[in-house]
Design goal:
It is built from three helices and six strands. By secondary structure, it is of the alpha+beta class.
C-alpha cells in the first residue's frame, strides 16, 4: 500500500452507506484525492453506550486496511457478538478479483496536489 487514500465521497453519503443515524454528528472532512498518512479521515465505529454507529476516523497507518463486505460490518464494529476466532478470520485478504487497480500520476507523491485527476488511470509510468 502506498500510504495514500482518497475521500471523494461527501461525509453525509458515508453516513448513509453505513446506516449511521441522522442525529449523530457529521464531522467536517473535505473531499481529498491525495490523503497522506498524517491526515485525519473519518472512521465508522460502534458506540456501545448509545447502541448505534457513529462517524468519527483516525490517522492512516502503514498497514493494509481491512476491506470487509457489508455483511461483516456488524460483527467487526461490535454490534453483533463475535469471538476472537471469528474476528481474526475476517482479516483474510480481500479477493483480488473483487478489486480494481491502475497506475496513477506521479503527482500523487506530493500532498500539495489534491484534485480528482489524481485518481484517473495513467498509462505513462
Amino acid at each position: 500500500m502506498c500510504g495514500r487514500v482518497r475521500l471523494s465521497s461527501d461525509v453525509s453519503e458515508i453516513k448513509l452507506v453505513f446506516s449511521i443515524p441522522p442525529h449523530r454528528p457529521t464531522p467536517n472532512f473535505p473531499p481529498g484525492w491525495n490523503v497522506a498518512p498524517t491526515d485525519q479521515l473519518p472512521i465508522v465505529r460502534f458506540d456501545a453506550r448509545a447502541s448505534e454507529r457513529s462517524l468519527d476516523l483516525a490517522e492512516l497507518h502503514n498497514r493494509m486496511p481491512v476491506v470487509l463486505v457489508p455483511e461483516m460490518w456488524p460483527q467487526w464494529l461490535g454490534e453483533d457478538p463475535a469471538d476472537a476466532r471469528q474476528l481474526k478470520a475476517m482479516l483474510a485478504p480481500y479477493p483480488s478479483e473483487e478489486m480494481t487497480c491502475w497506475p496513477v500520476s506521479v503527482r500523487v507523491g506530493n500532498v500539495k496536489n489534491n484534485d480528482p485527476s489524481l485518481i484517473e488511470p495513467n498509462s505513462a509510468r
